[in-house]
Amino acid sequence: MHQYLRQDLAPKNNKLLGLEIIRFIAAMSVLFWHYQHFFYVADKRTDFVSEQQPLYSVFSFFYTYGHMGVQVFWCISGFIFFSKYRRTISEKIIDHKKFFVLRFSRLYPLHFATLLLVAVLQVIYFSRNNFYFVYQNNDFRHLILQLFFASNWGFQRGDSFNGPIWSISVEVVIYMIFYLVLRYVGKSWLVNIAVLLLCVASRVAHGPSPIVDCLGFFYIGGLSAIALQYFEKTKYHNLLSALSLAAVFLVPVMAYVTRIYHYKSFAFLFLMTYVPTLLYIAARNVTVHPTIQSVVEAAGNMTYSSYLIHFPIQLTIAIFFAYTNQAIPAHSLTFFLGFMFVTLVASYYIFRFFEKPAQDFIRHRFRRLSTKSAQAQL
């Protein structure tokens, strides 16, 4: 979800393709998890048997644990943000205005567009069914929260409009904390440790919280980035990389053999340790055939658009079947493949013809205004 950052992380013609692949897999896992929306009537699933979803025997892991792709996104965000901004913000090279514009231009245009799209589509769906599709809190209160990216800051009565935006709404809060901590506390790795300890303490005392969990995953990803930047300049780099690679392969096997994944907190602890280790290994500059590079980059570019457009596509399909008085053929393999194909193709073109142009326009406009403001002060 942060491709504009990657350009500054790697030399020209070298791309962090490992991170791109992980981001794409995380995005696909969310698509698998949300496939269950096709079994919804109002906000409840009906006649839903997880094992009867298309290709379940092949993709059971994604159908079962696909929601964890969100935590992977949070961790990747922390890794990338600390790689790019840790020094520039702490040394006051990037001020709050520029940081805000970079974030706003990247996230808000598509959020705003899909919010309006879903608002219209839900009215159409409601007129036929007397209830909304999946997310029911589509009133003026939640529209205002959505417009300010505050849909899941604790003021909501439930998920609303384009529901998947909840994780981005939470992450926006973390961006604010990230900037303020770097600017006014410092960039020491000890700060990351302190934040992580506070997150763990809060989770133990009060239970899971989206904002606290996002903060924890963001900062553990950041700690992985700090570790990579430090150790790649030392003689221990190869040894640590080898140990990390071994852990990436052996830990899941050990968890499966010992069955410790049945424990209540296993998923949280596993992701908090495994994902940053995986990112430490994957964040390497590699040179591959241009065709492969282009394909992987395109896949990475589609992650944010696929995350925000897949629910509007599902809602459109639900409206079509409602108005034709047909049941959604969610068990059909052809239907499943068609949904995935349409979502990915739409995501590719949305990034190319809407996301990127909107992002470039806002940043160019900000640079022009900043230049005029500076000239006026001379």
From TrEMBL:
Protein name from the UniProt record: Acyltransferase 3 domain-containing protein
GO molecular function term, any single one: acyltransferase activity, transferring groups other than amino-acyl groups
Coiled coil, from the record: none
One Gene Ontology cellular component annotation held by this UniProt entry: membrane
Record domain Acyltransferase: where: 18-351
GO annotation, biological process: lipopolysaccharide biosynthetic process
Positions of transmembrane segments: 21-42, 62-82, 107-126, 163-182, 189-205, 211-231, 238-257, 263-283, 304-324, 330-351
UniProt-listed Pfam families: Acyl_transf_3
Taxonomic superkingdom: Bacteria
UniProt keyword annotations, A-Z: Membrane, Transmembrane, Transmembrane helix
InterPro entries hit by this protein: Acyl_transf_3_dom, Acyltransferase_3
